[in-house]
Design brief:
about 350 residues; binds cobalt (II) ion; Pept_M24A_MAP1; initiator methionyl aminopeptidase activity; Methionine aminopeptidase; single chain; metal ion binding; Creatine Amidinohydrolase; metalloaminopeptidase activity; three-stranded antiparallel sheet
């Protein structure tokens, strides 16, 4: 899942509900970005071509959300869902932006297990997507596959979220609630899965094409994946967290795409969303440096138009682009190791393939 970005207010962000809030401390950003061509990327040639090629899709509308699913007693829950309370000291300490938690070798293994489970569950969900499937059915699969592995579906009851995963279709940027809507030919959907395994969260998301998606949509999905992988390639001990956003924006901008700024990646571990805030756009925020043992997510949301503004539905979660252009997202949970980075939610041999892998095969 993505996390609300509050810029210089990192301490507050670490505990705030992940929905759109008025931006605080934006003066520093304004001053630091004036005169550097920062802001709305001008739509280049590729962007204009893409705009012409974009199909007219019906806007996504809310469907009926079914009752919350049960989780058996024997499954360990996170504290927000009625599990054992976190010790106040560890909770408080992990809120300071300069205090990014360094995982012990045992904790790293815990994160590896959580990442592996999240990947398996996400793959199962992606493989079930067909024209006519409801997002509710996808949620049921995520729920069952998570429980089958002795894990808890982290989004369930997180700040009141009613379902076990997020399903974000077309212009939905993130946090779509699975409901009765049937998937249509030409839809593109992000499925965001987080699993809580023996006290650790693993978080990943992926795009799935439903039926036949137009070329402009396919390009958006592919470039979004490339943005994530480029961002991962800058991760290693001593790298600046702010390098991540530069890598993403540099790749997205020539296509005339906008990088969503209202949500960011996040530190993750025993706590679902914590420091650091991982910004996906070019920035000079003092986000700190990566150290061996840091675990965090990168999850860029890339908009098909240069527009970066979002709005949230009255359900308090579903966030859409203001201009209705489609938005794509991929997410991995990462661990910084000696000499580089380990993708904890990496694909395995049985994973759901990227669409261009099957097309080119
Ligand atoms: Co996330």
């Amino acid at each position: 899942m993505a996390f609300v970005e509050t810029l210089s207010s990192t301490v507050a962000a670490a505990t705030s509900r992940p929905r759109r809030v008025p931006r605080r401390g934006s003066l520093a950003l304004w001053l630091s970005t004036r005169g550097r061509g920062f802001g709305k990327p001008a739509a280049g040639q590729k962007g204009r071509e893409a705009a012409r090629a974009r199909p007219r899709l019906e806007p996504v509308r809310p469907g009926t959300v079914s009752a919350t699913r049960a989780v058996p007693e024997h499954i360990l829950r996170p504290d927000y869902a009625g599990g054992p309370k976190q010790k106040w000291a560890s909770r408080l300490l992990s809120r300071f932006p300069w205090d990014i938690e360094v995982k012990t070798p045992e904790e790293m293994d815990g994160m590896r297990r959580a990442g592996k489970v999240a990947r398996e569950v996400l793959d199962a969900a992606c493989k079930a997507v067909r024209v006519g499937t409801t997002t509710e059915e996808i949620d049921a699969i995520v729920h069952e596959e998570t429980l089958k592995r002795g894990a808890y579906p982290s989004p369930l009851l997180y700040q009141g979220f009613p379902k076990s995963c997020c399903t974000s279709i077309n212009e939905v940027v993130c946090h779509g609630i699975p409901d009765s809507r049937q998937l249509r030919d030409g839809d593109m959907m992000n499925i965001d899965v987080t699993c809580y395994v023996d006290g650790f969260h693993g978080d990943c998301s992926e795009m799935v094409l439903v039926g036949e998606v137009d070329d402009a949509g396919k390009q958006l999905v592919r470039v979004t994946y490339e943005c994530l992988m480029r961002a991962i390639s800058v991760c290693r001990p001593d790298a600046e967290y702010s390098d991540i956003g530069c890598a993403i924006e540099e790749h997205a901008k020539p296509y005339g795409y906008g990088v969503i700024r209202d949500f960011c990646g996040h530190g993750i571990g025993r706590v679902f969303h914590t420091v650091p805030n991982v910004l996906h756009y070019r920035n000079r925020e003092p986000l700190g440096r990566m150290r061996v043992g840091h675990t965090f997510t990168i999850e860029p949301m890339i908009n098909e138009s240069a527009e970066v503004r979002t709005r949230t539905w009255p359900d308090g979660w579903t966030t859409v682009t203001v201009d209705g252009a489609r938005s794509a997202q991929y997410e991995h949970t990462l661990l910084i190791v000696e000499g580089g980075v380990e993708i904890l939610t990496r694909k395995n041999g049985d994973s759901f393939p990227l669409f261009w892998e099957t097309e080119e095969a």
